[in-house]
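General statements about sequence and structure are easier to judge against a single worked case. No coordinates are needed to read the tokens, only the vocabulary itself. The sequence in question and its structure tokens are set out directly beneath this paragraph.
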Amino acid sequence: MGEEEAKNVEVEGSPEVTAEVPPPTSTESSKDTAEEKAAITPATEEKANDLETLVVVEKIVDLPPTKKNSGGSIDRDAVLANVENEKKMSLIKAWEDSEKVKAENKAAKKMSGILSWENSRTASIQAEMKKIEEALEKKKAEYAEKIKNKIATVHKEAEEKRAIAEAKRAEEILKAEEMAAKYRATGAVPKKVLGCF
């Protein structure tokens, strides 16, 4: 306490606001407490961006009293209590910010997990759909092949029936020609004559 120290009080949201409280020296303890009594006057001022409050600290110098004043110790205690309060408030603010960041990170992680799940499920369903489409295409090709085979079978059967009908026609014509030649050779008239006569 033999040397003069300046204690700086830093308030959350105002980085350059300080209050100087010199400690009393051993020889001039009564004069120092009376002469350099510091009072902290808070004044609020809204910032345009984030609407935080700004605490302005002013140094008030009183005229030195002739008597020893015990109020210097009380003022010092008040300043120390204020510093302690500001420290608590800054710790609370830091804790609050930390909890908010944790909550945001947790939510972001959850959203990322949901997006990952959605993408994997979508890919799985699309792969399943593609598999089904390929199976349907395979079945379609098989059915098309079966239909083509059936059509080919029908054409083959039709050709066979045409060949049979043509052979029967040719046989009947040949039979008619033979009968006509026989009737000509014998001179007999056929029993069945054309129905229009």
